[in-house]
Records
---
Amino acid sequence: MGRVKLKIKKLENSSGRQVTYSKRRSGILKKAKELSILCDIHLLLLMFSPSEKPTICIGEKSSIEEVIAKYAQLTPQERAKRKLESLEALKKTFKKLDHDVNIQDFLGSGGQTVEVQYNESTTRTSKFRNFFLLSSCF
């Protein structure tokens, strides 16, 4: 008996979202670690569960500070371009899986200017730094 093809959309049931997150989280963390080792890349993966519990994965050769500093060095234009490229690649993947995806659903910025996106990313970077400084105390 084969697997059922799951339509990629938000799960409406909150307990179902939590169960799915719990089951898939370890697989994503494992793949991220493998990618970090195989490709010798800097990696920082931060996820929040449906219940807002943070999970962090740091690559083999990375530190939180290094990855954030590397990201902060990108210009706002480079960040916007890479985000769009990633979303286009995601769209192609979904298309291969025969899923309809609206790229605007993933943008989150509602077509904002690069400057606004830059300000938002600067704020996020600052929040990440504060979060990691606090978490390193434990």
---
Amino acid sequence: MRMKRAGDVDVDSDLLCAFDNSTGTFALSRVLSKETVLLQGLYAPFTMTGNLVVNGVLVSAHSDWYLDRVMPQSHVHRLPAIYQATMAPARLAYRLGGAPLMEFLDSKLHLVELASAVSL
């Protein structure tokens, strides 16, 4: 099963959905309908694994970033792994020093602004 953009998921597509939250086990579930909902709030959280479970569906934590607009459709499924590799130094820094180190680095290097500037 390949990763794909949420907008590219169609009715009758299969998704990995959590059916037992206590064990973290996933099963295929068929998409029965599709709608777009725009809400204000948090987005693009960086996780150690690059994955999230949202409303019971396994999704990538990586949102639209610097390669999304130039990556050929046939290679879009590779984007999460590329972005995960890009974020490896930040994850290592977090493992070594936790939130205090990340806040210090951001105050000196302006990492959030840098990541935003890299976006096309």
---
Amino acid sequence: MVQLLPLRRRGATLFVSLSLAEPDATTLVDEIDQLQATVRMVRDLWPFELDAWVVLPDHLHAVLTLPFRDDDLAIRLNTIKARFAARVSKRAMTPSQIAAGGTHLWSAQDKVAPIRSRADMEIFRRQCWTDPVRHGFVGDPHDWPYSSYHRNSRTDPRRAAPDIRASA
């Protein structure tokens, strides 16, 4: 079952979905360099492991693990959203978002699901990899550039060629 913030668990591994307020926006891929820089900056301030992720035009999914002694997921997600909104160029925002200072760039609710087993981990990693296929952006996860699929398939030989292509 999907839970909403705050979900606080020390050392927890979680599946997170963040969405833009406008469902057809392309801001996340248009401003991918800014998003990646923001995530790196937040990881430097409040460490977490980014086990898998995918960025689509209007939402992203991530599997992340918090440090054992730290349970504050909300500070990480809120900082990513605020700093990205501050960094993103005004051309990527609608007039109403510009007028609100970027605060309405993101949807108000973050979706968070705890990962309690290896099976859960594989399900959510696969969701990260297959989401661009499911949304019709590509036919094969390998073709989507904004995903950890490339990193994970290179570093884990068991995942070198999963059969997760779109059906014809």
